[in-house]
Every structure is written in C-alpha cells, then in structure tokens.
Amino acid sequence: MAVKLAEAAGLEKLIGSREKRIGLKPNLVVSSPAQGGATTHPEIASGLISYLKKNGFTDIVILEGSWVGDSTVRAFSACGYNALAKETGVELIDTKTDRYVTVDCKGMKIEICQSARDIDFMINLPVLKGHCQTLLTCALKNNKGLISDSEKRRFHTLGLTKPIAHLNTAVRNDFIVVDGICGDLDFEEGGNPVYGGRMFAARDPVLCDAWAAELIGFSVSEIPYIGLAEKLGAGSVGPRRIRELNQNSGASAAQSSGSLKPGGKVKELTALISGENACSACYAGLVFALSRLGRNERNRLGRISIGQGFCNKKGSVGVGQCTSGFDSFCPGCPPTGAEILSFLKGKPHYPGA
Ligand code: SF4
User: Fold this and answer.
1) Hey, which of 195, 244, 246, 248 would you mutate to test ligand 1's pocket, going by the most ligand atoms within 8 Å of its Cβ?
2) 278 pocket-lining for ligand 1 (C-beta < 6 Å)
3) Residue pLDDT, tens place only, 210-227
4) Which of 48, 326, 336, 337 could cross-link 217 (Cys pair, CB 3.0–4.6 Å)?
5) Looking only at Cα atoms, what is the longest distance across the chain?
6) What pLDDT is recorded for position 299?
7) Rounded to the nearest whole angstrom, what is the distance from the C-alpha of residue 181 to the centroid of ligand 1?
8) What are the pLDDT digits (tens) for 223-259?
9) Are 231 and 194 in contact (CB under 8 A)?
C-alpha cells in the first residue's frame, strides 16, 4: 500500500533530483513491535525504499530517536529496522547520539539534530494513535524524534502544544505516509491497539493531523497544536481534497485483528458492538468514538450494530451506511470517528471545527 500511495502522489516527481538525500522518519518511540500499536510497521518503510530505489534514488537514511526512557538501538532491533537496514543497505541514524544545532523556529529556539538538517526530502512515517496528554499523535508530533533528549524533556515542561507547533516550522515534512493499521487507543507507548487497517498519505502535516484527529473521534479544536502550527505557517487545515484508493477492500475487522492483543479497555469497548462483516476503518472509528464517551453514556446506548451483515436489515442503533435500514444510524461509508461520536451524542457534526 505504501508503494501505491507513493505512485498515486507521484512521489518521484515530488522529490525531483536523484542526487537528493532522502530521510524516512518512522515512529519508534519505544522498543516494541508495531502490533502493539506504538510503532511504525517496517513494511511501510520497506515498500518506500523499494519504490525509491526503483526510481533511481540511492541516498536514503532512516532517522529516529526513541523517547527519553528507551534506547533507539533497542527499538531499531525490536521493531524490525535492523533487519530492514541489513536487507536494503539503508543507514540507520540514532538521533539521540547526533550533533544538534539550535534553530530559531518562528520565535522559539529548539535543538534539532544535524542529520535531519542535512536531509533534502523528508518522508514522515507516523503512527495514527491516541496520546494521554495531547490526545492525538500523528505527523506533527512524530518530529519530536528529531530533537535531543534534553529538548524532549523541555518540551514536556512547556506543555508540548507550543513547542510541537514551533518545531514543525523548521523541520521538513515533504511527504507523509500515515500508518493507521493498528494505532493505540490512548497511549503513545501502545498496549491497546485498535485494528484500523488503513494508511493514507499527505503533503501537509497540519492538514494530515486535522484529518487524523477526525478519524479517531476528535475535532481539530481539541488538539491545540494543530491550530497553532497552522497559525505559525507550518501548513493549513483546509481545504481538503481526499482521493481514496482501495476503499473497503481490506479484510473485516474481525478477520484482521487476530494477531493483536489489545488491553482490557479495547475489550470493554468492543463488548458494546455487534459487528457483522464490518470493514476495519469503520469498526475502528466506532471503537475510538466509544472511548471518548463516559462509561455511563456508553452504557445508556446499548449495543451498536455495524457491518455489511446488517445491509437491508432492521434494528435500533447502527453505524455506517450498511445500517441505513435501522431506526437510527450514522451515515457514511466509512464515517469518521468524529462523525460517529457526534451521532452517538446526538449532536450535528461540523467537519474541521
Ligand atoms: S458502512 Fe461502509 S465502511 Fe462501514 S461496514 Fe458498511 S461498507 Fe464497510
């Protein structure tokens, strides 16, 4: 799928000169394989490296610095990137051991690793997942792996929002491929993966995160760093032009989530769902939306039906166009998490709000 996204976007033309140094920036925040919902599937980087090599690009590196409590070296190994580097000859750069330069990021000075400054074209590979402080982590926040550990600590003392927005005025986000395969419900370190079976690409990190927020049940205004990054000129939340590839062609959520081991919270949420051949993106949107409700609110709703098995059937509450015969249903195919949440709360949804 990463190759399809690259081809659809005309990535080789976007990059241009074959002399350019290309960086791939996955999210390897912790040393835990992608099935846990925290880190970028190495197959995505692998697909892009094959595409780049086939198109004559040879100067390719992978850069990352895990969070303060973990070792990037361990993460490269545990997440499959050592094997990938061995197979492809691509260099791995641990940004924790890099030199740093202090850069003025639109009024905030931030220490950024020199290796990131040396990149001519950066491909950001974030995981779409929840975050216990910022609610969402996707493209904008993923670039935190390009700063020093002491800078990461300082970001937390500053409350993350402002420094994340400022950082993205100085780091490159030339192309973004989002791993929305099984991002965690609430925590950047994983443990509660929700199978979404989805990937998407973008060229603007602000637009990317605005869309990502809605997919997992947030409005853009709930993630303040998106609006601040836009104000600082790092991108724009709209207008959106979305081109879909392979809509609903993936396996159903039930079929695809077999290898995941979600924690108790996901199990508690899925117990409220009656799914019959639900597409993964639709099902994941409902799980994310349910997680935004309080327990009492959730329990008042009763069981919610979702999936192609409910086409032309009658019922009480349904999600997705397949349940259009129900007394009450959330339209869309698939609806976003934000649309589902508005429906469950009985409120109209305003995209991009
Ligand atoms: S509404 Fe669309 S995305 Fe959702 S289960 Fe039906 S076909 Fe799949």
Assistant:
1) 248
2) yes
3) 999 999 999 999 999 999
4) 337
5) 63
6) 86
7) 17
8) 999 999 999 999 999 877 777 776 555 557 655 666 6
9) no
